[in-house]
């Protein structure tokens, strides 16, 4: 399906972004967006011809070179030099999913008519998006303060006929791409290079990618935690709403209600128990999972504000006849949010691994390591090791990047957010969390196979679907493939948007 999403003044939300991604929706500009872009560009053209004083980034150098006046006949070269000189990325290539988000959010930001770009420039970015042309962008190089300069420079190089792109699965030079589509390169006008490079679209795209996955993993942590609770013959009382209304954190209430609903009509949970309490990793799921939910909600608000904003510099206000240099490119809100999200998700993995540990420990009439003939078989001994290793790695990634700063651009940029580093490590935490939860589901479903009664219809359906890809372990086999399939199972599970984002 290739219906169009029209870029307009209405804000994007997570549900809409997920819809655009999942349906492979193409982009187009609304008439109002076209008018705003053209109005701003026309204003800037007139303005630059009528004034002689320096305007940062339009007829001056950049960063510490802000005091160097540029002659009118060099304004185009100034912008192209900016894009070329700032393309200094290093490290691994950014995934195509995130680069496409970068393009989407850059188009959205430019559509407000405060950036001074040509309509042709924005349309070319849309052409890239719609034709699945992915500029080669690198993870390292942004300080998260003067915009994501280096990553956005690499994203912008193909506009001026330089750099590399992926097209139909092949990495090719942009020169070849232009010939394929019979395109001319974009001749950047005054301010355009700065409009493209200033901005937070690298951090924002990583953040939105992480948030889309975080909402899903937060939901599945409840589901998988319920599977483990049943496999451990746990108690339902800790999920009674009276407990949570007495301490009414929203995420806590939501988690308790969801787990109780997931266990509805379970014969197993309603059986008489010999134990009066469960370990914290089971009993405190509402409190721990709930705190993560509240964090995700807070960070989501921050990022939705960001992607629906103008984040380059200077900003052009046509109706007010003002061109104002400021700092909307500074990534501090995003850096703090990404660090907070990484910490919260790390804890979701931490408590998940603790449930895995309890399940393999030979308690509650479960065999040690959840396998027949323990000793001859090691069973689930090492999946717990793997989960523990990944959990520890996530704790290391949870060290905040935002507490760091470093002086750059000859002292002009004397405080930076390090939001880009916060972004790339947050993605690693998210990806790791999926593996940790996959191991718990693998372990919890195995434990449930030893139960003497049925769980709820919902839990049974989830486990039965899971066992198509990951069968019960009856004797030792190479479990690497099962762990990989468990993670893939989580990826493949479709969850209703209202459940995720409501």
Would you write up a description of this structure?
- The chain has 502 residues and is mainly alpha-helical.
- It folds into two domains: 4-199, Fumarase/aspartase (N-terminal domain) (Fumarase C, Chain B, domain 1, Orthogonal Bundle); 206-312 and 340-501, Up-down Bundle (Fumarase C, Chain A, domain 2).
- It is 55% helix and 6% strand.
- The protein contains 20 helices and nine strands.
- The protein has helices at residues 14-22, 31-50, 75-86, 96-110, 119-130, 149-156, 174-181, 192-197, 201-231, 241-245, 250-262, 267-270, 280-283, 285-307, 332-359, 381-397, 419-448, 457-469, 480-492, 497-501, and strands at 4-7, 26-29, 90-93, 134-135, 138-140, 164-167, 170-173, 315-317, 322-324.
- The strands form four sheets. Strands 4-6-7 form a three-stranded antiparallel beta sheet.
- Helix 1 links the parallel strand 1 (4-7) and strand 2.
């Amino acid at each position: 399906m290739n219906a169009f999403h029209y870029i307009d003044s209405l804000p994007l939300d997570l549900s809409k972004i997920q819809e655009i991604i999942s349906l492979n929706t193409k982009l187009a500009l609304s008439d109002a967006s076209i008018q705003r872009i053209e109005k701003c560009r026309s204003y800037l053209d007139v303005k630059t011809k009528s004034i002689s004083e320096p305007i940062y980034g339009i007829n001056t150098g950049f960063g510490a070179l802000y005091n160097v006046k540029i002659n009118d006949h060099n304004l185009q070269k100034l912008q192209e030099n900016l894009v070329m000189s700032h393309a200094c990325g290093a490290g691994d290539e950014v995934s195509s999913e995130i680069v496409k988000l970068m393009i989407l959010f850059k188009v959205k930001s430019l559509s407000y008519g405060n950036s001074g770009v040509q309509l042709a420039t924005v349309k070319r970015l849309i052409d890239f998006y719609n034709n699945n042309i992915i500029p080669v962008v690198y993870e390292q190089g942004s300080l998260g303060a003067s915009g994501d300069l280096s990553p956005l420079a690499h994203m912008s190089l193909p506009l001026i006929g330089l750099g590399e792109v992926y097209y139909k699965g092949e990495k090719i030079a942009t020169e070849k791409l232009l010939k394929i589509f019979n395109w001319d390169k974009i001749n950047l006008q005054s301010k355009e290079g700065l409009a493209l490079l200033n901005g937070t679209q690298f951090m924002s795209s990583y953040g939105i990618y992480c948030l889309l996955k975080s909402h899903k993993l937060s939901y599945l942590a409840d589901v998988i935690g319920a599977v483990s609770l049943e496999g451990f013959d746990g108690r339902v009382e800790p999920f009674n709403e009276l407990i949570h209304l007495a301490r009414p954190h929203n995420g806590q209430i939501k988690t308790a209600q969801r787990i109780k609903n997931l266990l509805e009509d379970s014969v197993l949970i309603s059986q008489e128990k010999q134990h009066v309490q469960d370990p914290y990793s089971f009993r405190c799921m509402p409190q721990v999972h709930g705190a993560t939910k509240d964090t995700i909600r807070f960070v989501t608000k921050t990022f939705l504000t960001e992607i629906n904003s103008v984040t380059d510099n200077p900003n052009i206000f046509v109706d007010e006849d003002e061109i104002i240099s400021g700092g909307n490119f500074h990534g501090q809100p995003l850096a703090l949010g990404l660090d907070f999200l990484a910490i919260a998700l790390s804890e979701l993995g931490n408590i998940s691994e603790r449930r895995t540990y309890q399940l393999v420990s030979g308690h509650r009439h479960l065999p040690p390591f959840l396998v027949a003939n323990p000793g001859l078989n090691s069973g689930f001994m090492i999946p717990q090791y793997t989960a523990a290793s990944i959990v520890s790695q996530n704790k290391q990634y949870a060290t905040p990047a935002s507490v760091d700063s470093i002086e750059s651009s000859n002292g002009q940029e004397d405080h930076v957010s390090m939001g880009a580093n916060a972004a790339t490590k947050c993605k690693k935490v998210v990806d790791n969390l999926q593996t940790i939860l996959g191991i718990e589901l693998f372990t919890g479903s195995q434990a449930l196979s030893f139960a003497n009664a049925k769980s709820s219809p919902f839990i049974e359906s989830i486990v039965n679907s899971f066992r198509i890809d990951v069968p019960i372990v009856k004797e030792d086999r190479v479990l690497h493939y099962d762990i990989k399939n468990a993670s893939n199972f989580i990826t493949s599970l479709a969850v209703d948007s209202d459940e995720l984002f409501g």
